[in-house]
Each structure stands twice: as C-alpha cells, then as structure tokens.
Amino acid sequence: MTSTALWDGDYWQSFHAVEDARRQACPVHRETLPDGAQAWIVYGHAPALEALRHPDLRRDAGEIQRIMRRYLGPDAPLSGMFTKSAMLSDGADRERLLAPLKAHFTPRLLM
Q1: Helices vs strands, H then E, count in the chain
Q2: What is the pLDDT of residue 83?
Q3: Within a domain: residue 52?
Q4: What distance in Å separates the CA atoms of residue 41 and residue 108, rounded to the nearest whole number?
Q5: Contact by Cβ (8 Å): 50, 17
Q6: CA 85 to chain centre
C-alpha cells in the first residue's frame, strides 16, 4: 500500500502515466481527496475481489453515508456516487435489487 495526495499538481495533464505508475507500484493506494478525506484506490481484478470479500468493507450506501457523516460532519455535502443501488447494497437488499438483472448478465450474453 502507498499513500499519495490524489489530484496534486499536474495530475490531469499526465493522468494515464500517473495511474499506470501507481498500478505497477502497488495495487492498493490510500489517497487524500481535495477536501482532505481519505479514500482507498484499488487497481486490478484480483485485488478488487479480495477487497470486496473482506468483511470490514462496506458496500451499503446507507452505511457508507453514515460513516462519511461521522467523519465529515452532519451537514457536509456527500458525493452523489454513494446512493442506493444494487452495486451499493448488502445482503437481502442486494439480492432483491439484482434479481431482475441476473438473466441479462450471463457470461454468454456478455461475450
């Protein structure tokens, strides 16, 4: 794991080179977002699966928002990317939201 400040300096002018170097150096990076919040960036399929299977990782949007509010304050603006969806749900709620999609995302149909 490495720690860097995300989007520092000329990041956007050399985005691909910076991300390629980070990916090659280490699959997991702790980043500092522009507002000072900390985030983890995970590169690669195998490291992402390992992270997603970890019991301490939260996928549920409501839980993520509660954690963010605890650290950022009750009135802090939160990213819109953490809203209720099949991808950001756990347990029975996740299964209920994914059930209608499963028939459309088979390996044969995705190829």
Answers
A1: 5, 3
A2: 78
A3: yes
A4: 30
A5: no
A6: 14
The rounded distance, in Å, linking the Cα atoms of 94 and 3 is 32
Domain membership of residue 44 as a residue range: 2-85
- Looking at the 3D structure of the chain, how many domains does it have? 1
- Rounded CA-CA distance 105/16 in Å is 30
62-79 burial: b if 16+ Cβ within 10 Å, else e? eebbeeeeeeeeeeeeee
Residue entry with tokens 């709620």: 93
Evaluate whether residue 93 is within a structural domain. Answer: no
Q: What is the mean pLDDT of the chain?
A: 79
DSSP three-state, residue 18: helix
Helix (H, G, I), strand (E, B) or coil at 29: strand
Banded model confidence at residue 91, pLDDT cuts 50, 70, 90 = confident
**pTM for this entry:** 0.54
Report yes or no on 107 lying in a domain.
no
In a domain, 38, yes or no: yes
